[in-house]
Specification:
Strand 1 (146-152) and strand 2 form a beta hairpin. The protein has helices spanning 13-29, 36-39, 53-61, 79-99, 110-113, 116-123, 231-244, 250-255, 274-282; strands spanning 146-152, 158-164, 212-216, 219-227, 259-261, 265-268, 286-289, 296-303, 308-313. It is globular and about 55 Å long. The chain has 324 residues and is of the alpha+beta class. The chain has a 4-stranded antiparallel sheet with strand order 3-4-8-9. Strands 5-6-7 form a 3-stranded mixed sheet.
Length: 324
């Protein structure tokens, strides 16, 4: 596996996104090919194949047309970086809503989604000079009430854990023995006949549970996760890019101001400058201040060379980084 850090100076946007995709998303998508009996007890150290981890793969594949721009020259809070990241994400959500479902029940075209031809098709739709138009509206319901935590012990065993009821009190059903409330993620199904994610007996809905685990040289480098309804997969991309390409530590990467476009509105947090917001609007986006903070996350960077752990906790939510 390629190293997490140390990308060459001057790496183009196209090459940068390919490296990220190969390093991170492909390892998570491979689980979709495992037989049902291997996945019956869960998906091991990787998210389940019908989760939004596909979004990250597709977002990385939606490489910028031309690919000659220099990523290291981008301002991490500048118009170029934020516009291109959002446009790639918009294409990813379109593919998610139309193609992702339980691979034990339907044929999810993983090879096509990861192919160079599909990447080229997505890339050709992205422009540095204007926002895309005529994309279909998002089709997945909002889903709050998620928590994320990660732990690394003295032996460098790492846990990346996320849990969500989906809606308040989930299904309203509580296990009589454990007291655990059951979620209502069946809401993630659609009822359109013939759609890959159409509800059916014994079928799992497309869901949004995506704890992350970044690897470096075959070892765990960083358990991480970002919550926030639809923002989750986009937040993972933003966090990883902050760490890998812009050299931020985990707290800086989590603190960094965020943007998100889901539907017609391009939301910007207060940390985005007015001139940047105006520049984004000039590209055709409908820019509005985010009514609430976008997402929230946690991460622990394992520095194997120095023998230390570096933790970060998002100020947008309750939480903290603790050593023991």
């Amino acid at each position: 596996m390629e190293e997490l850090v140390g990308l060459p100076v001057g790496l183009g946007v196209k090459e940068f996104l390919v490296v990220l995709h190969r390093r991170y998303a492909l390892a998570q998508l491979v689980v979709a090919h495992r037989p049902q009996e291997e996945r019956a007890g869960g998906c091991g150290r990787q998210p389940c194949p019908l989760g939004q981890d596909f979004d990250r793969a597709l977002g990385f594949l939606a490489q910028v047309e031309g690919g000659g721009e220099v990523v290291v020259g981008f301002d991490p809070l500048g118009v170029e970086r934020l516009h291109l990241e959002v446009e790639a994400g918009r294409l990813a959500y379109c593919d998610r809503d139309s193609l992702i479902a339980d691979p034990a029940m339907v044929d999810v075209p993983v090879e096509r989604l990861l192919s160079d031809d599909h990447a080229a098709g997505l890339r050709a739709r992205i422009s540095r000079d204007s926002a895309m138009t005529n994309l279909p509206p998002p089709a997945f319901p909002a889903h709050p009430d998620t928590i994320y935590l990660c732990v690394v012990d003295g032996d460098r065993n790492a846990v990346s854990f996320i849990n969500s009821l989906f809606h308040s009190f989930g299904s309203g059903i509580v296990s009589p023995r454990s007291g655990v409330a059951l979620n209502n993620r069946g809401t993630g199904f659609v009822v359109e006949p013939g759609h890959p994610n159409c509800i059916a007996p014994g079928k799992r809905p497309m869901h949004t549970i995506i704890p992350g685990m970044a690897l470096e040289a075959g070892r765990v480098a960083m358990p991480f996760g970002v919550m926030g309804s639809h923002y989750q997969p986009f937040g993972h991309v933003h966090l990883l890019t902050n760490v890998i390409d812009f050299g931020m530590d985990v707290q800086e990467a989590l603190d960094c101001a965020r943007v998100f476009r889901y539907g017609d509105v391009f939301e910007v947090e207060r940390g985005i400058g007015d001139d940047v917001a105006r520049g984004i609007a000039a590209l055709g986006h409908r820019v509005e201040p985010a009514a609430l903070p976008l997402g929230g996350g946690q991460a622990i960077r394992i520095d194997w060379d120095r023998g230390v752990l570096v933790g970060g906790s998002d100020p947008r939510k309750d939480g903290c980084a603790l050593g023991y």
